[in-house]
Here is the input.
Amino acid sequence: MMKYGPAARIFLRYIAAGLVSYGILPIDVGAQVAVDPDLIAMTGAALGAAVEGVYALAKRRGWAT
Here is the structure.
């Protein structure tokens, strides 16, 4: 089973950097989002669920898996 924590951490860092660069988030909040372990765990779980959902859809429709 793949661990999605590292991918979630990278994803959150890019999202936080984009939001900070557009002025939507303050710098300190963006830094906190990128390293919050609870948020990383939740995002990792969501990424895992999304991957499994797309895999199930591909199997059902006969796409390459």
Summary: The two ends are 16 Å apart (CA to CA). The helical segments are 5-21, 27-35, 37-61. The chain has one domain: 9-54.
